[in-house]
Amino acid sequence: MSLASDVKNALTSAKRLRLPWWGVLCIIIGALPVYWLFDHFGRLNIALPILNVIAVLAFVLALMQKLRPHAWFWITMTVIAALHVPLILFIPWGARWVPALGIAAIDSLDFCLILWILFAVGKFMEGRRPLAGERDSSRGLLK
User: Fold this and answer.
1) What's the start-to-end Cα distance of the chain, in Å?
2) Low-confidence residues of the chain, pLDDT below 50?
3) Do the beta carbons of residue 143 and residue 30 sit within 8 Å?
4) Which residue among 23, 68, 81, 115 has the highest number of C-beta atoms inside a 10 angstrom radius?
């Protein structure tokens, strides 16, 4: 299966995920202290980008549950999260209002890019799978 079809299948399954009303309420209540904390330190302008990155990463984690047992998945997610830190800290975030459609477009692009990276790393880590009955040379086992 190609990388493009993997990402397309993941996007299709992402469209089916739904968050119940109480989940939305918990997210809103959980976000309020974040806004208060950033307002207290005078950096309210970066609260929304940080919450958006957390939401996108959490959505990817929820979508890719089958990859959680793999160490390469967690290493890749850690690197992706670490790459978001300089983006948030060094981009000059204005205090002006940004349309929701613009924020959704940026978050969607970020989500698709993360999925593409995860599937590319997964294909690299997967390598060539032995055929049925073929000896796995690394373990000396029959597959």
Assistant:
1) 20
2) 130-134, 136, 140-143
3) no
4) 115
DSSP secondary structure letters along 78-109: HHHHHHHHHHHHHS---SS---HHHHHHHHHH
Q: Largest Cα–Cα distance of the chain, in whole Å?
A: 63
- Check residue 11 and give its pLDDT: 81
Q: How far, rounded to the nearest angstrom, does the alpha carbon of residue 93 sit from its chain's CA centroid?
A: 21
Residue 64: exposure state from Cβ atoms within 10 A (0-12, 13-18, ≥19): buried
Which residue has 């290493």 as its token pair?
75
Distances (CA, A) of 143 to 63, 70, 123, 127, 132: 29, 20, 19, 15, 5
φ, ψ for residue 2, nearest 5 deg: -80, 165
Give domain limits for the chain: 3-125
Output the pLDDT for position 53.
Answer: 93
